[in-house]
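User: Let's play a game. I give you a shape written as tokens, and you guess the letters that built it. Ready? Here's round one.
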């Protein structure tokens, strides 16, 4: 934790006057803050755990050191990492003023049941190591093969498997100065252990006792005597014992002690007699990389206490550092400053106290500040059926526990929101124990004062683009060449730009989804098109996580969730919205490949009918003509009245309204016009009420979802196998754009719509998800949705912040009968 106390060097230069020292400290920290601005990430999820085949709905908040929305980065990466530290899903989110949201599909072709991490970070954050990343451990089960979970038995740890560490307050024990010593007990599984015990000196005399208060942590007081050594006799829950020596006390040094009440912070400094009359010491308090307080004191007595109003400090972690007369940091202490009265007040008023199943719910939301004034802010809302998704507030990773606590500390923190569920003396002491034992990671004063800043290898990303170089047939750069980029996205996009003197071109800030393909051509000013284009390839920068261990106790909540999710999948099977058991093994492989990039809201391959690229081998041109007669109860007809020109529109028999056509997640009003069969990976058909329940009124006549081929699959290899020979046409290598994972809208049944299938059981666990609820100037917003068939308590969570970085979270339960 703290810096080691240092012996005074009699030959050192005369110390600077205290005002000069303070100015130097402030200047050094300002330089650090300006050169290395902070970004932190919080993610709000719809649920705490999931099943293979589910969708994770998430809202990202990227903020600076003051918890104000960051304007630095425009791209956020979200990785799903398994227990082998292998990235299974990587997403790239577009950020707008620090906000972004997305949906992560947990495909059964990618994942198995197990424990996972979700990491989120910007490219800029990579300069500081993965300790800075957002990190959440989650369980992913398999509802179709419901496992029996057993409770985690922490008492099975042997004494040898339990690590117990001791941390003197401020950094060091010093002879004949009373110090607080904190401790932390961790088992082989990385989770906390309940311990108790006592301290003995070298003569086996018992000095004091101790006992863990929460999460294996606690503290006790000790005054080490000169020349004595101390040992902790530790008793584990199973009755076994182990002995651990305490850190050796220093003969001379400094000790810093911090306590607080509701209004004030009390900082006591003790020094050895031998260090008196050596000059002034300096106490500095910094938060958010800014010096918030500094005080000097002449060393004419061995102890003094400073009382500081807590109103001087922002909410969150405050770093106290004591500097010796020779300008060296000799003791450090972290404390947590609470300002609950500064939080946003989120008042949620349901239009009823009790609801019926499938009844419409209206939540009236009003957000105000400390003074009761209305607040403009961005919030996310998750509503779950608590019988299907049992939750524990202490285990949640909330906007408070994350941005104020875990984002500032090194290492794993068990039950981070436990410290924010109540504000009482016991929780305050337990949070203090955490800060006494948890590693501080923001910076070390010695590095700051020496201008030893981390190298900024990774740049701020403002957008994604396509870059490269145009050269002649002899490899010489071609300046002022016109470059044309044809992007196959929706109705098509054409981008043109010029090369520079070095033949290089760059296009930035393209809002294009991941996986779209593009063609690129170039010509010089004389119309010469025989030029070579070298496209820059993304450079792989593997992520190394400092602490890949996934710590998740089994408490039975996931088993409850999987049991209910299994029933939901069975109901989808009954209505043909899943298709798992009716195809051969080879077809399963081809189907999984074909729907790999599907944007279907029912989940890739979960449809009434699925055609793959293998089914389209004999008609590589006009898609509408190819599909005529191949899709059950679907026919096509030309529509010359469409304002976009003549188009081929699909109709489901018995409906006068055309079906909704979605190509790579984008709705296409022109139907199948300009879509070539040879470009298609899969076609999924959703009919009737099932489609309407997912796509609302737009899908009440049915939906056709088209996924085009992407560059990460060798479709030709599969086609060659099924043809029994080489491809009919020469393989065309496509350029694939590494763009954004596009935002998806959360769809739920609308029971006011007569077209909604009301016969299918509504077994949803996530009832509503609204990632972008924005309060207006009056501080108000409204959230509306329909209940499912589940009865009992429904759980509402609202999180968010305003432009000034004030945080808010509200939890509400209502009853469905």
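Assistant: Ready! My guess for every position:
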């Amino acid at each position: 934790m703290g810096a080691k106390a240092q012996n005074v060097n009699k030959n050192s230069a005369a110390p600077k006057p205290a005002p000069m020292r303070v100015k130097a400290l402030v200047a050094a920290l300002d330089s650090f803050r300006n050169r290395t601005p902070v970004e932190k990430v919080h993610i709000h999820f719809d649920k705490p755990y999931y099943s293979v085949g589910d969708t994770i709905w998430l809202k990202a908040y990227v903020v600076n050191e003051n918890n104000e929305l960051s304007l630095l980065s425009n791209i956020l990466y979200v990785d799903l990492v398994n227990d082998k530290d292998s990235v299974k899903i990587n997403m790239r989110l577009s950020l707008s003023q620090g906000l972004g949201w997305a949906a992560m599909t947990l495909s059964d072709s990618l994942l198995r049941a197990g424990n996972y991490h979700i990491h989120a970070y910007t490219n800029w954050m990579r300069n500081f190591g993965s300790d800075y990343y957002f990190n959440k451990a989650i369980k992913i089960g398999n509802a179709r093969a419901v496992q029996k979970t057993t409770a985690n038995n922490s008492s099975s740890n042997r004494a040898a498997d339990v690590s117990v560490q001791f941390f003197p307050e401020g950094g060091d024990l010093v002879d004949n100065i009373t110090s607080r010593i904190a401790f932390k007990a961790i088992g082989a599984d990385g989770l906390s252990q309940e311990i108790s015990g006592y301290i003995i000196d070298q003569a086996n005399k018992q000095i004091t006792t101790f006992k863990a208060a929460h999460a294996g942590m606690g503290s006790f007081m000790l005054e080490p005597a000169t020349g004595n050594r101390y040992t902790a006799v530790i008793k584990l829950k199973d009755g076994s014992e182990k002995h651990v020596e305490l850190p050796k006390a220093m003969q001379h040094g400094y000790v810093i002690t911090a306590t607080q009440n509701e209004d004030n912070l009390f900082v006591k400094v003790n020094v050895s007699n031998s260090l008196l009359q050596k000059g002034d010491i300096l106490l500095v308090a910094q938060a958010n990389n800014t010096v918030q307080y500094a005080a000097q004191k002449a060393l004419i007595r061995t102890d003094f206490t400073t009382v500081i109003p807590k109103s001087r400090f922002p909410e969150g972690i405050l770093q106290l550092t004591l500097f010796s007369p020779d300008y060296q940091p000799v003791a450090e202490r972290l404390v947590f400053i609470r300002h609950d009265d500064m939080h946003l007040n989120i008042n949620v008023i349901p239009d009823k106290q009790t609801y019926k199943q499938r009844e419409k719910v209206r939540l009236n939301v009003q957000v105000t500040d400390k003074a009761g004034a209305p607040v403009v802010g961005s919030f996310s809302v998750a509503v779950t059926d608590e019988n299907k998704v049992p939750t524990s507030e202490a285990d949640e990773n909330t906007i408070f526990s994350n941005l104020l606590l875990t984002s500032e500390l090194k290492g794993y923190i068990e039950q981070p929101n436990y410290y924010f569920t109540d504000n009482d003396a016991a929780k305050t002491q337990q949070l203090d124990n955490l800060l006494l034992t948890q590693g501080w990671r923001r910076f070390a004063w010695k590095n700051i004062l020496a201008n030893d800043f981390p190298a900024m290898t990774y740049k701020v990303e403002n957008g994604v683009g396509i870059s490269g170089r145009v050269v002649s047939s002899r490899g010489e750069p071609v300046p002022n060449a016109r470059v044309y980029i044809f992007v196959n996205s929706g109705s098509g996009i054409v981008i043109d730009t010029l090369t520079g003197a070095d033949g290089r071109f760059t296009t930035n800030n393209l809002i294009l989804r991941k996986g779209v393909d593009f063609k690129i051509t170039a010509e010089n000013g004389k119309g010469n098109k025989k030029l070579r284009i070298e496209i820059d390839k993304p450079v792989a920068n593997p992520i190394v996580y400092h602490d890949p261990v996934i710590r998740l106790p089994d408490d039975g909540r996931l088993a409850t969730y999987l049991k209910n999710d299994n029933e939901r999948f069975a109901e989808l099977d009954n209505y043909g919205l899943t298709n798992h058991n009716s195809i051969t093994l080879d077809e399963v492989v081809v189907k999984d490949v074909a729907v790999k990039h599907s944007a279907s809201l029912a989940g890739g391959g979960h449809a009434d009918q699925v055609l793959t690229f293998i089914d389209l081998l004999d008609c590589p041109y006009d898609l509408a003509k190819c599909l005529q007669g191949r899709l059950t109860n679907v026919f096509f007809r030309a529509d010359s009245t469409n304002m976009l020109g003549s188009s081929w529109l699909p109709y489901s028999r018995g409906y006068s309204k055309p079906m909704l056509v979605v190509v790579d997640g984008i709705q296409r009003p022109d139907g199948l016009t300009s879509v070539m069969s040879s470009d298609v990976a899969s076609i999924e058909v959703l009919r009737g009420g099932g489609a309407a329940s997912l796509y609302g009124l737009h899908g009440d006549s049915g939906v056709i979802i088209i996924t085009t081929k992407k560059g990460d699959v060798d479709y030709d290899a599969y086609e060659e196998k099924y043809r029994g020979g080489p491809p009919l046409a020469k393989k065309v290598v496509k350029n694939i754009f590494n763009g954004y994972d596009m935002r998806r809208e959360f769809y739920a049944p609308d029971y006011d719509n007569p077209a909604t299938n009301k016969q299918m059981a509504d077994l949803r666990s996530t009832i509503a998800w609204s990632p972008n609820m924005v309060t207006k100037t009056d501080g108000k917003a409204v959230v509306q949705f329909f209940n499912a068939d589940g009865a009992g308590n429904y759980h509402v969570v609202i999180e968010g912040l305003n432009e000034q970085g004030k945080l808010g979270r509200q939890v509400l339960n209502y009853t469905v009968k």
